[in-house]
TrEMBL record, chains A, B:
ATP binds at residues 30-37, 147-150, 176, 184-187. Keywords: ATP-binding, Cytoplasm, Ligase, Nucleotide-binding, Pantothenate biosynthesis. Homodimer. GO terms for biological process: pantothenate biosynthetic process. This is Pantothenate synthetase. Belongs to the pantothenate synthetase family. Pfam families: Pantoate_ligase (PF02569).
């Protein structure tokens, strides 16, 4: 595995791969790798000649009240995980390397942002789209891998790639789950023992909603009510949102049709959990 | 010469050239081609295997008071000029092809815009940078050609390519001039006979300033005064601006050093003329 920290070396390395006609799978991350990231790397490993992982804690996507400095970092451990997952190139630039001077341009995301978790993080996805634009140009991947755990990010990246005609295939990778259905997350350790037992109710509620839709339910309000009922009955958490939108457009629907997302966020004592499923609704 | 109107065909065509390892020279225009554009195509022809010309009147870069509908168009004539200049691919998409639905992302230019002509055209360069991002991804050129007549646009594109790490070389092409020094422009025909005789004074004033700098002048205010004097004495036009900035950063300078631009705009009765020179000032 090559570890690259400069833009110049990254560019030269990737140009050589492109000249050889290699397919490139790209997994952009902020590091502190967990099983979700490993699933992305494994998917990229299966489908491409070369796998590139980037680790960059991007200051641009942190809000003024979000702690960039305290974001967890462990490059030695990450390097080991990446090597084991079969990564060929680990790109690990410094902030000074990525932002040597104030940017003269930025990407602004104008759709798909003012809902779900994006609602409370103004500018977050501008920072994500801007750094991805930079990274995409440095890596020039054939395919880029993103986890469906953050389905809104996948939707934003879908728009970025499609509207700017990036010659890149977006590959959404299913959320990795515990045996009981709970979506894996580094936040799960902050759950109390009792809360941990309740937490699978998030995915169970989503599955109940899916079954109801498969049985003919088409009213988004009824879907939301069904999930809220289930969560209230089965957990001690406080519901942050239960939302149903078209996917990946993230527009409200009067009646369910086409590809939709059902997304929920529940606050427990020391952890806010999110989960979602997408459903292709026959019209 | 291939004439291509769809994104899909453009993508396939360019992919084939890339697979063959061809170098690609790209000249993005809004059509109604004149000698300035021909100079760009000729420069591209000399340096690349394949020359791509795009003709797209981009609604995104027109302000609410700027008439997108009345922008001159003559594709039959343009096609002939492009063929004669040795263009291989003419990309001529419709607005519906380039913007099939509202964009979910856009490029916002945050530096180099609030000066010179950009000052009175808010959002103009956002539209330019957004459409260029789209076109760059479709063409994936080795080199992109822009005329120095619009030096601010070259500066913005320089920032776009550099800050987003586009793997593209920007090639600024010198302004094409009449024998008497007047920068060629489709607006020159709107000058009266008397004004046409005065108009070479713009370039003459810039040359006088350059000579003074070469003789040691380093005070930007003195350079401006020198030019304003010359223009007032030699033309009946009204000075819109005479500005001196660092180039391509377009920042004000206390004392001249490094690469600088001297840019002027003069209003005649029915035409506003612009001109500029860049000077590398030894410090």
């Amino acid at each position: 595995m090559k570890m690259i920290t400069t833009i110049q070396e990254m560019r030269q390395t990737m140009q050589a791969y492109h000249k050889q006609g290699k397919t490139i799978g790209f997994v952009p991350t902020m590091g502190y790798l967990h099983e979700g990231h490993v699933a992305l790397m494994e998917a990229a490993r299966k489908e491409n000649d070369i796998v590139v992982l980037s680790i960059f804690v991007n200051p641009l996507q942190f809000g003024p009240n979000e702690d960039f400095d305290r974001y967890p970092r462990d490059i030695a451990r990450d390097e080991k995980i990446a090597k084991e997952a079969g990564v060929d190139v680990l790109f690990y630039p410094s902030v000074a390397e990525m932002y040597p001077r104030p940017l003269s341009v930025k990407v602004v995301v104008t759709e798909r942002v003012d809902v779900l978790c994006g609602k409370s993080r103004p500018g977050h996805f501008d920072g994500v789209a801007t750094v991805l634009t930079k990274l995409f140009h440095l890596v020039m991947p054939t395919r880029a891998y993103f986890g469906m755990k953050d389905a809104q990010q996948v939707a934003v990246v879908d728009g970025l790639i499609r509207d700017f005609h990036f010659p890149i295939e977006l590959v959404p990778v299913p959320t990795v789950r515990e045996a009981d259905g709970l979506a894996k997350s580094s936040r799960n350790v902050y759950l109390s023992e009792k809360e941990r037992k309740e937490a699978p109710a998030l995915y169970a509620a989503l599955q109940k909603a899916k079954a109801a839709i498969e049985n003919g339910l088409r009213d988004p309000q009824a879907v939301r009510a069904l999930i809220e009922d289930y969560l209230t009955t089965h957990t001690s958490g406080v519901i942050d949102y239960v939302d149903v939108y078209s996917y990946p457009e993230l527009k409200p629907l009067d009646t369910l049709a086409g590809n939709i997302i059902i997304a929920i966020a529940v606050r427990f004592t020391n952890a806010r959990l999110i989960d979602n499923i997408t459903v292709d609704v026959p019209s």
